[in-house]
């Protein structure tokens, strides 16, 4: 299902979002056509090409956390920028203590830094510390997300949601999260909320690791507009 929202300043296109597979969301500054990605799961390059998106207008990517369905397409995205002779600066943002993203950046630079047509920047973000990219104002905030396997205890994952403001228009992306006060506070009253709604009524786990679609729907009603994404 296509999910596209158009505000006065920013257009939001959920290129793809499926829990455990991939999520990639594109923000377009309607004034100057600068592009900002939120997460880049597997298939990001394909999804951009399917929509005839110019890679040369991409300025950076915000990665919510290091799970593969949120950053598994990063290496191929960087390779595509190199292939298309991208010029200027491209910035990858991720939470601090996110070894998956850091390792990919280092490996890519080890292989291809010589002769690259662009400058690759990697910024480790901190909770509530603002960044800017062009006219996009980026505020990361901590959310509750956990590593979980059947053989280990739950361990808190370094994970962010993002509040992105463009000339007064506000978009919030939950990333992956449990119910938490930080997310509730950030969503209220925003122009568009993008909320993961992984669990449906068949959910049976004793300890959850994502939002249930009923709660995500309830939370979304506090925003002016909202999309439920990242379902199984």
Structure description:
By secondary structure, the protein is α/β, with parallel strands linked by helices. The protein has a single domain (3-229), classed as Metallo-beta-lactamase, Chain A (4-Layer Sandwich), CATH 3.60.15.10. Helices cover 22% and strands 38% of the residues. It contains 6 helices and 15 strands. It has helices at residues 44-50, 68-71, 74-83, 99-112, 181-187, 213-220; strands at residues 3-6, 10-18, 22-29, 35-40, 58-62, 88-95, 118-125, 131-133, 136-142, 146-149, 152-156, 160-166, 169-173, 192-196, 226-229. Strands 1-2-3-4-5-6-7 form a 7-stranded mixed beta sheet. Helix 3 runs parallel beside helix 4 (99-112). The longest helix has 14 residues, at 99-112. The protein is globular. The protein starts with a strand and ends with a strand.
Write the layout of secondary structure elements.
Layout: E1 3-6, E2 10-18, E3 22-29, E4 35-40, H1 44-50, E5 58-62, H2 68-71, H3 74-83, E6 88-95, H4 99-112, E7 118-125, E8 131-133, E9 136-142, E10 146-149, E11 152-156, E12 160-166, E13 169-173, H5 181-187, E14 192-196, H6 213-220, E15 226-229
Parallel strand pairs: 4-5, 5-6, 6-7, 13-14, 14-15
Antiparallel strand pairs: 1-2, 2-3, 3-4, 8-9, 9-12, 10-11, 12-13
């Amino acid at each position: 299902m296509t999910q596209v929202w158009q505000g006065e300043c920013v257009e939001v296109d959920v290129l793809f979002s499926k829990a455990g597979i991939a999520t990639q969301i594109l923000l377009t500054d309607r004034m100057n056509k600068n592009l900002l990605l939120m997460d880049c799961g597997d298939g990001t390059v394909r999804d951009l090409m399917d929509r005839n998106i110019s890679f040369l207008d991409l300025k950076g990517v915000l990665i919510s956390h290091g799970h593969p369905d949120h950053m598994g397409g990063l290496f191929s995205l960087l390779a595509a920028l190199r292939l298309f002779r991208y010029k200027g600066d491209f910035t990858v943002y991720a939470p601090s203590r996110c070894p998956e993203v850091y390792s990919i950046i280092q490996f890519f630079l080890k292989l291809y830094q010589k002769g690259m047509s662009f400058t690759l920047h990697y910024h480790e973000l901190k909770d509530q510390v603002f960044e800017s990219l062009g006219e996009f104002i980026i505020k990361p905030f901590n959310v509750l997300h956990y590593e979980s396997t059947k053989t280990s205890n739950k361990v808190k994952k370094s994970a962010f949601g993002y509040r992105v403001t463009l000339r007064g228009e506000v978009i919030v992306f939950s990333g992956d999260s449990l119910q938490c006060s930080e997310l509730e506070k950030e969503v209220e009253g925003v122009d568009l909320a993008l909320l993961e709604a992984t669990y449906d009524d068949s959910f049976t786990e004793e300890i959850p690791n994502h939002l249930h679609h009923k709660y995500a729907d309830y939370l979304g009603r506090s925003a002016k507009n909202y999309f439920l994404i990242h379902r199984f």
